[in-house]
Write a structure and sequence with these properties.
The chain is an alpha+beta fold. The chain is 33% helix and 29% strand. The strands form 2 sheets. The protein has a 5-stranded antiparallel sheet with strand order 1-2-3-4-5, with helices on one face. The longest helix has 65 residues.
Length: 221
């Protein structure tokens, strides 16, 4: 009887050791999984914060430039603003920035890879024609996305329809005048929208006086 009890006690001790080993392994796995999930969560949070900061920089550039866009007349707007779904160039006349001269501001979409796209903001100093770019612009990448980035323009509807519609290009020539707004979309989501406030040519007003406010020749859209 004593031998049986010793064998039983030894078997119970072995079971306890195995159970402790299994518990330790399980705890290690759970701890490791939790650590991995926490790191992934932190990475996602950091990515969201970075993305928000990038979009804020893009908004500042877009709104700042759009507020400085103007032209001499509807017919002359193609030299001051021209755009496609991947490139928008505009002559920016800074307001409230000291003595910074006018420059061509450019938003350009580039494909980094098959699934990565970047929005580049560039300034072409010494240029006053949106149709011409300099060889050495000052540029920076402001946004990167894993879906296609496109630029849109709020312009009059084609044909006899009344009202404005979003289009992916401003077209050639200045028949439509300045866009009422410019926007950036990623995939199917509209991410940024900035109004272009100029509706009347300042140079036309200077030439015609207050009456230019009612003269169609001073309209910019």
């Amino acid at each position: 009887m004593m031998r049986r009890r010793q064998k039983t006690a030894g078997f119970v001790m072995a079971e306890a050791l195995v159970a402790l080993a299994i518990a330790a392994m399980t705890l290690a796995l759970l701890t490791g999984a939790s650590w991995g999930l926490r790191l992934a969560s932190e990475r996602r949070a950091a990515a969201v914060e970075t993305s928000a900061a990038d979009w804020l920089a893009a908004r500042r550039a877009l709104v700042g430039w759009a507020s400085g866009v103007t032209a001499a007349s509807v017919e002359a707007t193609d030299a001051r603003f021209i755009g496609t779904s991947t490139t928008a160039r505009m002559v920016v006349e800074p307001v409230g920035y000291g003595r910074i001269p006018a420059f061509v501001g450019e938003l350009r979409v580039e494909a980094i890879s098959d699934s990565t796209y970047a929005l580049i903001a560039a300034r072409h100093f010494g240029q006053i024609d949106a149709r011409v770019a300099s060889d050495d612009p000052q540029e920076t990448e402001v946004v990167r996305a894993n879906e296609p980035i496109r630029i849109l323009y709020l312009l009059p509807r084609d044909g006899a329809s009344v009202g404005d519609t979003w289009r992916y290009e401003t077209g050639s020539g200045g028949d439509d005048g300045l866009p009422a707004a410019i926007a950036i979309e990623v995939g199917e989501a509209r991410m940024l929208t900035a109004r272009i406030f100029a509706t009347v040519s300042t140079s036309c007003l200077a030439a015609l006086g207050p009456g230019g406010l009612e003269d169609d020749r001073c309209d910019l859209r």
